[in-house]
Amino acid sequence: EAAEERAAATRERQETLRVIAEQESFIRGLQTENKRMWEYLTGRQNQDDNPDT
């Protein structure tokens, strides 16, 4: 019984770590998307401020 509990706890930890890794990957994607959007918006703002450039 103790061995079964340890095995179940191990599986639960592995699943938790898998979910965390998946969420971290999603967050990195959002960070990249946010950075690109910020660069686009700030570049556009700079063009609005300096239409000759």
List the helices and strands and how they pair.
Layout: H1 2-49
Percent of residues in beta strands? under 5%
Structural class: mainly alpha
- Distance from N terminus to C terminus (CA atoms, Å) equals 73 Å
How many structural domains? Answer: 1
Portion of residues in helices? Answer: over 70%
The average pLDDT is 93
Please provide the count of β strands: 0
**Rg to the nearest angstrom?**
23 Å
N-to-C SSE string, H for helix and E for strand = H
The number of helical runs is 1
Outline the low-pLDDT stretches: none
- Gross morphology: rod-shaped
Major β-sheet annotation: none
Question: How would you characterize the overall build of this protein?
Answer:
The chain is mainly α and 53 residues long. It has one domain. Helices cover 91% and strands 0% of the residues. The chain is built from one helix and no strands. It has one helix spanning 2-49. The longest helix has 48 residues, at 2-49. The termini are far apart.
Short description:
With 53 residues, this protein is mostly helical.
Keyphrases for this structure?
91% helix, 0% strand, mainly alpha, rod-shaped, 53 residues
